[in-house]
Design brief:
globular, six-stranded mixed sheet, homodimer
Chain lengths: ~325, ~325
Amino acid sequence: MAKSIAVAGVTGAVGQEFLKVLADRNFPFSKIKMLASERSAGKTIEFKGKTYTVELLSEDSFEDVDIALFSAGGARSKQFAPAAVAAGAVVVDNSSAFRMDPDTPLVVPEVNPEDVTQHKGIIANPNCSTIIMVVPIWPIHKVNPIKRIVVSTYQAASGAGAKAMQELIDQSRDVLDEREVRKEALPHQIAFNLFSHNSDIGPEGYCEEEMKMVHETRKMFHCPQLAITATTIRVPVLRAHSEAINLELTNPMSPDEVREILSKAPGIKIVDDRQGNYFPMPLDASGKDDMLVGRIRQDISRSDGRGIDLFVSGDQLRKGAALNAVQIAELLV
Amino acid sequence: MAKSIAVAGVTGAVGQEFLKVLADRNFPFSKIKMLASERSAGKTIEFKGKTYTVELLSEDSFEDVDIALFSAGGARSKQFAPAAVAAGAVVVDNSSAFRMDPDTPLVVPEVNPEDVTQHKGIIANPNCSTIIMVVPIWPIHKVNPIKRIVVSTYQAASGAGAKAMQELIDQSRDVLDEREVRKEALPHQIAFNLFSHNSDIGPEGYCEEEMKMVHETRKMFHCPQLAITATTIRVPVLRAHSEAINLELTNPMSPDEVREILSKAPGIKIVDDRQGNYFPMPLDASGKDDMLVGRIRQDISRSDGRGIDLFVSGDQLRKGAALNAVQIAELLV
């Protein structure tokens, strides 16, 4: 059962989380290769009591590798994933490079685990905002198909990598100490501020992050017509994303029915204490595997009982990236 | 023309902003009385080159006062506004105490200035989240009536007062210096976190802040049936609120038409640079009078062309509170 694995992009924020998740879940591996770009090759990494030297990610990195976990950016995935597949590895890729490729399954294990079997060497991990949305809405969709989604996100700095997390910390100090704020990882000040996700804006005025939520959800749900509008916003939070989700369902459904469905669904913890005014918060979701789901209520703007509002927080690095990829790898074992 | 004015709650975050706005706009006053509760009475305040002593807010405070600007909390408004009216003053009240009273006009000068004339001594200033939403959507509604609104807010600490702003600063330092975080003004950690607005949750699962957005918008628009669902979230930003607004209109309308309408509307600055990826940010809105409006796009989840998405940032203390109240006072002069 134990597999020879490789982690490409191991020194990044998601790469580091890959290692934590592999250790936490006791993933059965016989060997593990730590791979990264030139900047990080030669560094050492402690993992499960052993010291590893980071090797340069190259086309020759994948001999005898069974499963390669990639989180080294889209360009490196495009360059090196085919070499990994040619060497006999199955790639679980966290970048956007292959997500919409018809030959590449896009998988959230709580949603469409069966799609893993269709792979031709590469399985794609969805975008973090998509994962955090689909885990709580899929169980509802199975019972009462979703017709339309209006979603607004509150996305943590971690989604832009370890440098953006550090930039949030550095800028916060700069603001508190009344120094000029320096911007490198992110185009706008993130400390005590927020801004529209800075991916490119397409012809319809939606940014790439928003269109990922649209296209990836449709692909995983096998619902090419599912109606979705998204507004994606970066907020000064370190590592968990939150989302305000408004659902239009096919049939009327009460909040109690939704709560009942979600209480039995995998990967979800209901945090919905109206009396105590305690609901999902990114601080509580950070470092946790479960999506926190709350503010479950009937949409009062609809008189037909077919609207449900939710608020969700989920760890971007964990379920939004590393955990989901390792869960996919577990499906392969 | 010059009026004798009083500012009740002058030492609070909004009270201080009242003074700035009165000075900035050269509001014509003959006398100004600084009023606050026992905790602040006796303090001195510099205003337009003169030193004022803060007097205790009481039922006897309003002799010879023409206009009283109140921002001392709902309980004090309920206690002292009737005395001010009895003494002959017109009260512009920033609290929620009288907003839904049928005898009290609720006014945003860009939306329903004519309602001011209906007052019986008190005019209410809407909730900040409501003001920031209605300024950009009213000009659209006038041309193409809005049928339904789905709104998610990103609300600054200032909405919970000066103490909450200080708490965001103090907690941010505590987190950066790895000290335990202290909570007093807000029930949950706000630094590097966010949470559902902590007003009481009603029977339908909506918090008071959300229901204010529903009821106040309906009242000002004179549309008792307008369908609105809101999710209100407090974010670690100091003083400007942002809102992701999804509109269902009566008739199809293009983003260009919306942009054209908003470019001529008062109190709005369009910030919608798709190529430069520059959109409304609370940092840019802070201290400004205009609502910043951007991310104007057709809602791709609707095939009938009747959906529009917007993202708005507006200063909570200024247009969200003090500026709007002073604009109401200007309508009275």
